[in-house]
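Dear Dr. L.,

I hope this message finds you well. Following up on our conversation about the binding site, I have prepared a predicted three-dimensional model of the protein together with EPZ. For your records, I am including the exact sequence and ligand specification that went into the calculation, followed by the structure tokens. Please feel free to forward this to your student if that is useful.
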Amino acid sequence: MARKYIVEGGSNLEGEITIRGAKNAVTKEMVASLLAPGVTRLRNVPDIGDVDITRRVMESLGCKITHDAEAGTLESDTSSLATPEVPAEYSGLNRIPILMAGPLLHRFGRAVIPMMGGCGIGERPLDFHLQGFQSLGAKAEYRDGAYHFNADKLTGTRITLPFPSVGATENLMMAATMARGTTEIRNAAIEPEIVDLALLLQAMGAIISQETDRTWMIQGVDSLRPADHRVLNDRIEAASFAASAVATRGDVFIRGADQLHLLAFLNWMRRAGGEFEVRPDGIRFYGRDRKLKSIAAETGVHPGLMTDWQQPLVILLTQAEGMSVIHETVYENRFGYVEALNRMGAKIQVFSECLGGRDCRFRQLNHQHSAVIWGPTPLQGAEIEIPDLRAGFSYLVAAVLAKGRTSISGVRYIERGYDRVVEKFRALGASIQVVEE
Ligand code: EPZ
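The resulting structure of the complex is given below.
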């Protein structure tokens, strides 16, 4: 049965929450465990839908997964891996199965992976993945609703990605760990979650280094062994709650927020008038009695302003004085969610031009990828439906800010990626009821 959140708005978020492991690292690290027969142990694992989906996919392949949601530990026993074919029923759920291509190729010489899912925030093709595998010597093609990969043994090569794609970098990195010879991935993604994956792979026995200028070098080894790894904290969860604290003119200590991985975000937060205090075990964010200011910013690959920080930042900017501009350069269609915010009283207009920054690869392609936000605008409660994960969190913050009651449906999106989100909002004073539809 589908569930809804009913939010009574008007709270200033105050108190303390603890960040857990990063959604966009843990699921990839579960996949990495397929490379080494035996039990790999992950710690700081968040209690989110995507971990559950990934667990189910891996179990369907014969793995034994034990997840203690309370303790945040997950053991992945891949010694009983029995098939390289991901069942079609897992198509469309998330974007993780395609990352199994490399590990399954190493263990079986072939892999069959059904069509991908994930949030509808752009076309999200997989051409970089397929071309990368072809360069590594695999036969990689899409037919009959699935991606088919075949290779007796992968061979190291030099790959230059057309764009620093997170998923393609992770996929090719895992595939390269046991390829014959050395693989160089140029123009690669270098997000902290990818570095965390590289750390796990190194602990498993891989030889992997980050060179200057977005290049990963991976020297193939014959085999990998299981490891024990603590997943890095979720910088998207941290930034989402930080923006919420400031937007609601509250005061929240985010235990586990890591300054190193929030560098760009913290600068934008300060430019927008929010403040923070860095402590040894986290960061306190506050907006009480502060004048929020408009900004012009653009999202980009690491170390830029993350595309996944954009949505909570937009909510904050609806409360800032003046006209803000956000230019989204990672996904061509990541402003679909603003229409519902406008119904709540926000004043946001989207444009296909590259506003507020340099021209990006979406220029003149008619994608609505720039937004202008006028503020401050009071928000009112409404009935809204979540279109994707990060938009979902921003709707929750908008609902907390709004006058009156907001009913939010499609909450499975939020729960796919945010650990115990209702519990955390309630701990900060928000009034949220969960009802069955
Ligand atoms: C990852 O998606 C994250 N998902 C996204 O988070 C995140 O927004 C994104 O990286 C950017 O940081 C996961 O880690 C599960 P990409 P991914 O490949 O790997 C284009 C969330 O809410 N591209 O870096 O799928 C693509 O269309 C999610 O947690 C190609 O053209 O992103 C996009 O425009 C949303 N061809 C750009 O590159 C390809 O073969 C970046 O995509 C691959 C990508």
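In brief: Residues 235-247 form the longest helix (13 residues).

With kind regards,
A. P.
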